[in-house]
Write a structure and sequence with these properties.
Layout lengths: L5 H26 L6 E6 L4 E9 L3 E6 L2 E6 L3 E7 L4 H23 L13 H20 L5 E6 L2
Antiparallel strand pairs: 1-2, 1-5, 2-3, 3-4, 5-6
Helix pairs in contact: 2-3
């Protein structure tokens, strides 16, 4: 059996104020949110509110929800999450490239002509399927949801 050293006890006592300060520092991150930021608030009575951040003090949080504005006591709040930035343009461009590549490959396969047979429209598959694939890929990329929710404050 191994004995604990007095150094580990001293280390725990030295870190205790930092751990307590860390839990109060989370509320400071709430106060640093910008007005108009979309947030989700979970309350200790089980309700969830989704709205836009208005302001925060040391004691309360103000959230604009559809048709009203709620002032919530800090003691009522269990969790606050903010919505991250979306990447629709980036996803759309990636989808455009992937779709164009897939359309080009499908067009090349469709345009194959067996030896000895004359092809009347040798590149029609590539000319039609490449832009069609690019358009479909761009639309699918734009529809992919992005902008995850991240916790700003959470009671442990």
């Amino acid at each position: 059996m191994r004995k604990s050293t007095p150094i580990s006890g001293i280390l725990v006592l030295a870190l205790a104020p930092a751990l307590v300060a860390q839990s109060t520092a989370n509320w400071d991150s709430v106060k640093q949110l910008t007005a108009g930021k979309e947030i989700r608030v979970t309350l200790n009575d089980g309700r969830n509110l989704r709205g836009t951040f208005q302001s925060a003090t040391d004691e309360a949080l103000t959230v604009a929800i559809p048709n009203s504005q709620e002032a919530l006591s800090r003691t009522m709040v269990i969790r606050i999450a903010s919505k991250g930035k979306g990447h629709r343009l980036r996803n759309s461009l990636i989808g455009l490239g992937v779709g164009a590549g897939a359309g080009l490959i499908a067009g090349a396969v469709a345009d194959r002509c067996p030896a000895g047979h004359g092809c009347w429209f040798p590149n029609v598959g590539k000319e039609i399927l490449t832009p069609f694939g690019a358009a479909v890929g761009a639309i699918v990329g734009a529809l992919i949801p992005t902008g995850r929710w991240r916790d700003v404050y959470r009671v442990k």
